[in-house]
Design brief:
The chain is α+β, with helices and mostly antiparallel strands. Helix 1 packs antiparallel against helix 2. About 20% of the residues lie in helices and about 45% in strands. The chain has one domain: Transcriptional Co-activator pc4, Chain A.
């Protein structure tokens, strides 16, 4: 079983998607395919995250959705890649992150774009569904 999570930005650019999310066989975390489109830049890259990291991220997003302040990262324990959401003034959500490729020649993409607070509730719901996925 796999699922896709697409951040609701109401446009095709910017876009952030975690596609083909599956749970590790041991149930400890997830693998996915991160797709980012931000301005004239885009990238696709494997993205991994552990169950406790996901649970903490969901709690932080719930708090952010209620208080309209805060920030948190979805970042694997043993990788440098991350996705961060930061609530700024006026209900704007800054989405930023970094992706690294170390095989062969090193590659690095740092991205940032702004969406609004309406993206949080559907994202939280999808992330909760993700945490309930069965192992592959």
């Amino acid at each position: 079983m796999s699922m896709d999570i697409i951040l609701s930005t109401n446009t095709n650019n910017p876009r952030l998607e975690l596609g083909g999310i599956t749970r590790f066989r041991d149930g400890s975390g997830f693998e996915s395919h991160l797709v980012v489109v931000s301005g004239g830049f885009s990238a696709e890259h494997p993205f991994y995250f552990e169950e406790p990291v996901l649970a903490s991220f969901v709690k932080a997003l719930e708090s952010m959705d209620q208080s309209l302040k805060g920030e948190d990262k979805l970042k694997p324990l043993f990788e440098d890649d991350y996705i961060e959401l930061v609530m700024s003034s006026g209900g704007h959500v800054i989405v930023r992150g970094e992706m690294f490729e170390c095989a062969g020649e090193s590659q690095h993409l740092e991205f940032s774009f702004v969406t609004d607070q309406t993206c949080l509730t559907p994202l939280i719901e999808d992330l909760k569904k993700c945490s309930q996925m069965a192992t592959t």
